[in-house]
Amino acid sequence: MITKLHIKNIGIIEDIEIDFNNGLNVLTGETGAGKSLIIGALNIIAGERFSKEMIRNGEEYSYIEVCLYEPENSDSIDGNIIISREIHTNGRNMCKINGRMTTVNELRSFMSHFIEIHGQNDNQNLSNVKEQRKYLDEYIGKEIEEIKKDYYDKYVEYNEIKKELKQNLGDEKERQRKIDLLNYQIKEISEANLRDGEEEILEDKRRKMLNVEKLEKNLEEADISINGNTIDALSNSIRALERVEQIDAKYEETVKSLKSVYYELQEISRDISGYREEIYFDDEERNEIEERLDLINSLKRKYGNSIKEILEYKNEIEEEVYKIENSEERNNKLKEQLKSVEEYMEEKASKMHNIRNVQSKILSKEINENLKDLELKNAKVNIHIDYQDVFSEYGKDKVVIYISTNLGEEEKELNKIASGGEQSRIMLAIKTVLANTDDMPILIFDEIDTGISGKAANAVADKLRKISKQHQVICISHLPSIAAYADYNYFISKQVINERTNTNIKLLNENEVIQEIARISSGEINDATMKYAFELRNKRVS
């Protein structure tokens, strides 16, 4: 549910915060005080289009922030989701979900799971054929859920098979060009006879080649120093100490240590001599290493960042060539698989169609019963289920709500015949029927009471209250009966401060609620209207 709405710099709204609650929240107030701007702000935070003309005169930006409490949602932090949208006069648009920057499209998609707005011009869901199918399926419930899930799993597989077949059955010339290109790449990599780790060895040799003079000079100096002086000096020292080692044990130990150093130094001398022999490179070998490294780098630029990646790429394109060259056999298998999947989907689609066909008649009947209460006595809804030739995400059914608003008139698609006010009441009738199955947490109704009064107004109030048992409902109204049925009443007013008009909002206490019901019932607050308001209010709890 929405727990808080913050609006800044929209129209005559300078800066207001509204704390909403569960149940039925009804907003009433003066004409032109900003009630429609609040609905406009909710539309904006839901990701709808924004006109720069809505930015408060003299300000550079508008800002809307809403706090949703949805503890079971993965995006929530301690159950709260903070959504904000800031729009500047220069066109800059900034949307955030829990502080994370997002696009308007992402915001719209995210909010579509939380808020539905219904009013004179805001019944897109009701006009959307996909949503009409969704309403029916929500009404049917568990009877269709498992079948729909099994069907959808196969639908995913069906699309994957069709995608692969489309790739395999492409233009023959294009396929041959692709094979030729891949074979050329395979040949180029194969002829290079690459070996994993080869590049590192060659780079090491190349590094030595580039430093050959430095290596020769210093290795020679080390070799001469060890062999010319050090080893001979150690040998003389050992012989001298051997002549006295019998005199004291400590001399014997020193001789042993010197011999160990002597033998180790001889080993080092041999290693250095070996290093000197290794550093010889002729120009031919030098050129071969440079050419080999150039070839490896050329292949890396084309096929991968290392020899390992190049060899892996070669394996992949060899497999691709095999698939293309053997595509006929593969395609035959895919066609058999596709046929099996289509038969399964057809069976499930047919079952869903039969269920929808039966349940649509029951749902139509229940909606029509509710429409009678809403001063649409001659209106008749009829949900059509047309079985299509193609598979879609939810079967082969096209679900369309048709309506005839007057006796003797031909029924037509709902979005082509019903007015905004009629659509709002039809939506209210649908939501009443679906109150226990609809998973949309927040429903917003903007002046749903337009053009109705008396018994119909009481019926609208009663249905809004029933829906609010399962959903948070926010409603703008001018009718005393709807205000009387509210769980929470908000009064919208305006005042002029420093020659600027500002919107104010106040959550009313019980006595103030009675006075507001009296005011909107006749425009005056007196004993008669207060008595009427009190009676209306008492109906809410009766």
Structural class: alpha/beta
Helix content estimate: 55-70%
CATH topology term of the domain at 2-114 and 440-541: Rossmann fold
Using only C-alpha atoms, the radius of gyration works out to 42 Å
Query: From the coordinates shown, what is the CATH architecture of the domain at 2-114 and 440-541?
Result: 3-Layer(aba) Sandwich
User: Major sheet, described briefly?
Assistant: 6 strands, antiparallel
Question: Mean of the pLDDT scores?
Answer: 84
- The parts where pLDDT drops under 50 for at least 5 residues are none
Distance between the termini: 27 Å
What portion of residues belong to β-strands? Answer: 15-25%
Tell how many strands the DSSP assignment holds: 15
Tell me the strand order in the biggest sheet. 2-1-4-5-6-7
The CATH superfamily of the domain at 2-114 and 440-541 bears the name: P-loop containing nucleotide triphosphate hydrolases
In DSSP terms (H or I, runs of 4 or more residues), the helix count works out at: 18
Using the alpha-carbon principal axes, give the shape. elongated
Q: What is the name of the CATH class of the domain at 2-114 and 440-541?
A: Alpha Beta
